[in-house]
Amino acid sequence: MRYKGKGNIREYIMEMSNLASKLKALKLELSDDLLMHLVLISLPTHFGQLKVSYNTQKDKWTLNELISHCVQEEERQQREKTESVHLASSSQNRKRKNNKDVVERTFQQKKVKKDENTHTCFFCKKPGHMKK
């Protein structure tokens, strides 16, 4: 049984605990350490930081502590995901704006070129060009 990232992580861990209690009723008892290990193994790779922090600590977590840490990690990942979506959408808006500015500048440059034809030269007094 693996957590696929759909739904709530708390419900998933509680379901794993429920399955362990059903096995206990069938006289196939799983220790708490083994249950914790099975839960950690079944988590996807984006929970890697959580796995590392669990393995580096000397103290072992209870099931409730594991649930709270997993929920915190899931919330952190959701915040990062929404932040990256906001960044992507804001960069697309800038790109469109800059493209619009380029179009407006080229239009204004063409307009200026048309206006140059109406100027008269200061040197020869003929219309259409200017002496530099």
UniProtKB/TrEMBL annotation:
<feature type="region of interest" description="Disordered">
    <location>
        <begin position="74"/>
        <end position="102"/>
    </location>
</feature>
<dbReference type="Pfam" id="PF14223">
    <property type="entry name" value="Retrotran_gag_2"/>
</dbReference>
<protein>
    <recommendedName>
        <fullName>Retrovirus-related Pol polyprotein from transposon TNT 1-94</fullName>
    </recommendedName>
</protein>
<feature type="compositionally biased region" description="Basic and acidic residues">
    <location>
        <begin position="74"/>
        <end position="84"/>
    </location>
</feature>
